[in-house]
Batch of 2 targets.
Target 1
Amino acid sequence: MENKVKVVMAYSGGLDTSIIIPWLKENYNCEVIACCADVGQGAEVDLVHDKALASGASKVYIMDLKDEFVADYVFPVIRAGAIYENKYLLGTSCARPLIGKALVEVAKKEGADYICHGCTGKGNDQVRFELAIKALSPSTKIIAPWRIWDIKSREDAIDYAEAHRIEVPVTKKRPYSMDRNVLHLSHEGADLEDPANEPMADLCLICTRPEDAPDEAEYVTIDFEHGTPVALNGEKLAPLQLLEKANELAAKHGVGIEDIVENRLVGMKSRGVYETPGGTLLHEAHLALESLTLDRQTMYFKNTVSNQYAQLVYDGLWFTPLREALDAFVASTQRTVSGQVRMKLYKGNCHSAGMTSPYSLYNEDFATFGEDEVYNQADAEGFINLFGLPVKVNALMKEKAGLNTEEK
C-alpha cells in the first residue's frame, strides 16, 4: 500500500484552520498532522486536540512555547523598542516566526511533504509563516488554501463548516478575526472594516474599558537588568510569569487598547483593535529608563534602529542576518539600561512616576535651576557663537547679496 502524502497543518482550532483539515483530505488525499503552538492562547488550547481529531487529523502536536515566546521573542522586541508605525506592539508579528519554527520541527520529525497554513492571501501572516519556513527548511513545500480554493469570505467558510458539521468559535453575528497570545489579542473584520465605526462597547475581552476602570490610580514598580524586565513590585519573576502579572495589572486599568489603521506589507491599509496590556506597561517603562540611561546620540540612533527592527519583524524577516545584527547593536545599548521604574496606571493611561538607575546620566549638579558649583553659565556664550556660526555666515552672505534674509 502506497504511503499517503503527509501535510503538517498549522492548527489553531479557529474557523479557517478547522475547515482546512477536511478540505486538504478531499483535495490532496493526504494525511493531515495538526500542529498547535501554544503561545498563550488560553483555554482554547485545551479543546484543540480533540477538535483536530474530530475534523480529520491523524495526529495532533500541542507544543508549549510560552516561555520561549516571551524570553526569546517578546523581550527582545521590548529591548529594541520596536513599535510598528508608532502604535502596534507587534503582538502577532513576533509570534509567527516561532510558530513557523515549530511547524518545521514537526514536519522534519514526521517526514512531511508539505506545511499548510490558514492565512489569507490579503494578510501579513502568510508572509511571516512562509519566510520562517524558507529560512529554516528551504526545500519544504507550502500549501495556502485561501489562495487557491473557492471559499471567498468568512461567511462562505462558516457555511462550509456547517455543511461538514465542524464546530467553530465564530458566528455570522460576531465574525471577528481574532489572534490571541500571551502578549496581545487582536480584533479585525466585521464592523471594524469601516474606519468610521467606533468599536463596539463589548469588543475587548482582556482589558477593562478605560471608563469602567478603577477610579483610583495604581502604582507598579518594574526592575530591569540590561534592558530586560526581571521583577515586578519587588518580586523576581521568570519572563512568562512577569508578563502575565503585568497583563493582569495593566488590563484592570484599561491600559493597552489601541485602535489602529496600519499599512500592511501586501500593500493595503487595514484596521484592527489590539489589546496589549502588559506589553504596553513594559514598553513604556523601558522607554522611560532609556531616557535616563542612554546618551543623546545613542538614543537618537537607537530610535532609527527601533523603527527598522519593527518593520523587519512586521514583514516576517525574523530569521535574517539583519535581525541578528540589530540585536547585537541593541544588546550593546542595553548594557546600562538597568534600574527601577515606577509606573502609574489610571483609566487607560500608563506613564512613569519616577525612576532610578546606578547608570543614570541625569546629574542634578548640572541640571539644577538653583545655585551650582560645576556649571559656568558664561561658557554658553562661546558655545552659541560656534554652534551658530553657520547661521551667521549665511545671514551675512544674504546681506551682502541684497537678499531678504527670510527668503528660502
Target 2
Amino acid sequence: MGFRSNEKRKWWVLGALSFGLLAVGLDMTILNVALPTLASDLSASTSELQWIVDAYNLVLAAALLPAGMLGDRFGRKKFLLAALVLFGAASVACAYSGSPEMLIVMRMFLGFGAAFLIPLSMSVLPVLFEGAERTKALMVWATANMLGIPLGPIIGGWLLKHYDWGAVFLINLPFITVALFAVSALMPESRSQSRPRLDMVGIIASSAGLVLTTYGVIRAGEHGWSDTSSIAYLGAGVLALALFVLWQRRIAHSLIDLSLFRSARFTWGTILATAVSFAIFGLLFAMPQYFQAVLGADTLGTGLRLLPLIGGLIVGAKAAQGLIPKSGAKAIAAAGFAVLAVALAAGAMTGSGSGYGFAALWTTAAGLGLGLALPTAMDAALGELSAERSGVGSALIMAMRQVGGSFGVALLGAALNANYRGHLNEAGVPETIAGRAGHSITAGVSVARQTASDTLLVTVKDAFVHGMDVMLWICGGIAALGFLLALVFLPSGGAAADSSKDLGL
C-alpha cells in the first residue's frame, strides 16, 4: 500500500515542510529591518552590511542545483533533515555572532541550508500527491514560501522593539524544530531508483555560473550598470551557464534533464514563475522604503502595512486551487497576471499625497494577482516532474526564480534610484548636502531633517515617489508580458498522467 493511501499523514508532512519554509522566507527579509542596529552594535561598515545580506543569496544560488541532485540520488528525507539541523544551528550562530565577519560566514551556512530546504521540500510534492491533490498541496507550499517574505518586516520590527537583534535569527528555531520532528517522524524516505554518476563538471559549472551571475547583478545594483567589473562578472556567469548547458547536452548522466524543456508546461510554467518573482521582488524592494521614508512609518508599522498584500495572496491562492480544475492553468495564470498588471499600473499612479488607503487597495489587488499567477505557473511546471527527478527538477525551477528575483531587485532598484536622482530638485541646496540626499531616499529624508529644510524634504519625497512610479510601470509591463505569454504558450490541459510516473518509494 503506497504512502498516498495515508491521507492524514502526507498532509501533516506538508504542514511540517511549510513551517520550515516560513523560516526560510522570514530570513530573506527579516534582516533588512535589523541592518541599522547591526551597523551600530557590530560596528559594521556599509560594505560589511551588504555582504551580510548578499552572502546568503550567493550560497543559495550556488547550491540549489546540486542540492536537488543529491536529494534524488541519496534520499530526500535525510538531506531535508540535515538541512533543517544546519539552518537551525546557523540561526543560533548568527544570533550570537560577535563580529561582522562571523555573521557573514554564518549567513553563508544559512544560505546553504536554505538551498536544500527549498527545492527538496518542493520535490516531495510529486512523490506524495497527484492530480488535484498535488495542485492543492502546491498552493499550500507556495503560500508558505511567499508568506515569510512580507511577514519578515512585521516580526522583525516587533522583535527589535522588545529584544536584542539576535532575536531576528532565533525566531527561526520554533519553525525549524516543528519541521524537524514532524519530517523525522512522518515523512518516508524517497529517492530516484536510478543512481547515475555524479556530474562534478556540471555541479562546478552551474554553481560558478549562478554565483557569478547573481554577484554581477548585486554589484550592478550597488555600483550601476556602467561598472565594468559588474559587467565582467555577469559575462563570466553567462558564459559559465552556457558552457554548463553545452556540457549537459553531451553527457549521458547530466545534472539536469534538458528534455524537461521539451514540455511547454514545464518551460512556460517556469518562465512565468520567474516573471512573477521579477515583478514582485521589485514591489517588495520599493514599498517598505515608501512606507518609512514618505509615510513616516516605523519598522513595525512598515511590516503591518504589508498585510493587505498577504491577505490578497492567501485569497488568490485559495481561489486558484478551486478554479484550475474548472478553467485550466492557462486561464487562471493569465487572469493572475492581468490582475497583477492592473494593480501595479494603479500603484504607478501614486502621488506624494496619496496616503496609505490607496496603497492598501492596490497592494491587496497585487497580492490577489500573485496568489493566482505564481502557484498556477509552478503547478504547471511541477506537474511534468516524475518522482525520479523531482529533486533536480524542483531545484531548476527555484534556481530560475532566484536569478529572476535577483535581477528584479537590481534592475528595478537601479531604475528607481536613477529616476529618484534625476528628479531631485537640488536648486539652492549646497553641493555636499545635495550629494548626501542623492544617495538614497533614507539619506535624503535624514539630511532634510538634520538641516530643518522642509523644501528639501518635499522634493526628496516627490523624487522618490516619481522613481517608484517608474519602477512600478516597469513591473506592470512585465506582468502584462506574462499575461500574453500565458495566453499564447501555456497549455490549458492537464499534465502528463500522474499514474504513469514511477513514485520511487
